[in-house]
Amino acid sequence: MIRRTTIIITTLLMKLLYHHKVYGKKRLPKAGGIIAANHSSYLDPPLIGISCPHEVHFLGRESLFRSPLFAWYIRKLYTHPVARGKGNIATIRKCLELLKAGKKVVIFPEGTRSQDGNLHKGQLGVGMLVLRTKCLVIPTYIHGSYEIWSCHRKHPKFKGKTACVFGKPLDFSHFEGTSTREMEERIAHSIMNAIAKLRRWYLDGAKGSPP
Question: What is the pLDDT of residues 145-192, one digit of tens each?
Fold first, then answer.
C-alpha cells in the first residue's frame, strides 16, 4: 500500500510538473533482470520507479538509512542499503542476491551521476554481474532529469520535460567461459551504446518503437 500510494502521488506530480512520458513499456519482460540506465540526477530512481509497471529494486547509500523513519519508508520502496568505503564488493553481492532471486534491479552502468548530463563510459561491474547471472539487461534512457535537478543544483526546477525510454532487452547469455576484463568491457560498452541509441531515438522525435 505504501509503495502503491507513493507511485500514484509521484506519477501525478511528475506528469503535472514535467509532463512525464514513458516509451517502450511493452518491451519490459516480466522476468527479472537489470534495468541499466543513464544517471545524472536524484530524480532518476523515482522516474524509473513510476515508469516500470513491475516491482523494481534499488541500491541506496547507507547514509540514507540513518533516520529510522526514512529508512523504514525507503525499504518499503524496495531500496537496499549499500555501505561505502568497501569498494564494489557490497554492491555486487547485493545485486547478485536480488538477480538470482528473479528481481529487477536498477543499475547505473556509469557508476555515478554525470557531471555534465552527457553519457559516459560504463564500468566493469555491470559486465561482471551479467556474466555471473546470465540475466537480461533492459537499456533505459532517462531524459530531462539533468536539466531539472543536476548535481550542481541544491533544489530542482519546477519546469521542464522528462521521459523514460525502455529499449529492447539485451541477452548476453551467449558469452561463455570465465569472466574476463575484455568480456566485461564489451558488455558495458554494448549497454551504453544501446542507451545512446535510445537517446538519439528520443531526440529525433520518438517515432515508432524504441530500438
Answer: 999 999 999 999 999 999 999 999 999 988 876 678 899 999 999 999
Residue type, 166: F
| Length of the chain counted residue by residue | 211
- Taking the C-alpha atoms of residue 115 and residue 91, their distance in angstroms, rounded to an integer, is 22
The DSSP 8-state label assigned to residue 28 in this structure reads -
Query: Residue 84 — pLDDT band, cuts 50, 70, 90?
Result: low
Neighbouring residues of 116: CB distance < 8 A, sequence distance ≥ 6: none
Cα gap 70→64, rounded to integer Å: 8
**Cα–Cα distance for residue pair 48/33, rounded to 1 Å:** 14
Domain range summary for the chain, segments of one domain joined by +: 32-203
Q: Which cell is 100 given? A: 538470482
| Topology of domain 32-203, CATH | Glycerol-3-phosphate (1)-acyltransferase (3.40.1130)
Q: pLDDT by residue (tens digit) across 116-150? A: 999 999 999 899 999 999 999 999 999 999 999 99
